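task queued by scheduler; priority normal; single chain, no ligands, no partner chains; default sampling; output format set to structure tokens
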Amino acid sequence: VNTTAWPCATLLASTWDEELVEKVGKAGAEEVKENNISIWLTPACNIHRSPLCGRNFEYYSEDPYLAGILAKKYIEGVQEMHVGTCIKHFCCNNSEFSRHWASMEVDERTLHEIYLKAFEIAMEAKPWTVMCSYNLVNGRRMSENNKLYNVLRNNFKFDGLIMSDWDAVKDSEASLNAGLNLEMPYNENHHNLMMKKAQENILDERKLDESAVKVIELAEKCEKESKLRKMDMSINE
């Protein structure tokens, strides 16, 4: 469908204008509503670490405070229109080179003060979902990174759904056990293997239930908010 070509995140960040970013979020959400879409896969607030990263245009800044504040305002703008957001790519998606297999090596202080800080600030706006990145962090794939998912849940108080980037999951069971709730897109081979393990009582039933609850909660939220979107549109008409 035809949509507006909004300025990229880096250009928006160069304005240092929180109100403008929130307005762009609202305006973009209006187009999303018109197409009956429940969740907009945005914003992205990774740190500009290398000028060679092909996704830098999606990210706001090399400064975690600026990136976090603007991501927060963007989320608030979008979700005020009854459209959900998906903040991404969690985390340290700072290189395009071998991005499914490269490991970003970051010490704990730098990780928390720079690479996670923007996500921490943005969580104040309560995005509906979070998308994991393709890469590994300190040797552990992000789709299987229970340590950083625990930070997201326990430290940043995120209570929504964690989904994968497209084809970021290499081991569905390991991802489930780590705390990933939804693998995207549907993978028939992974599905069949997981069904077989479930029937053989190999999967952790508690983890399976936790993810199922998150998917159901999101589906119910989408249904509820879709009714509010339709009400808004009928009033505007």
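post-processing summary
- The beta strands are 39-40, 84-90, 103-104, 129-132, 136-137, 140-141, 161-163.
- The two ends are 21 Å apart (CA to CA).
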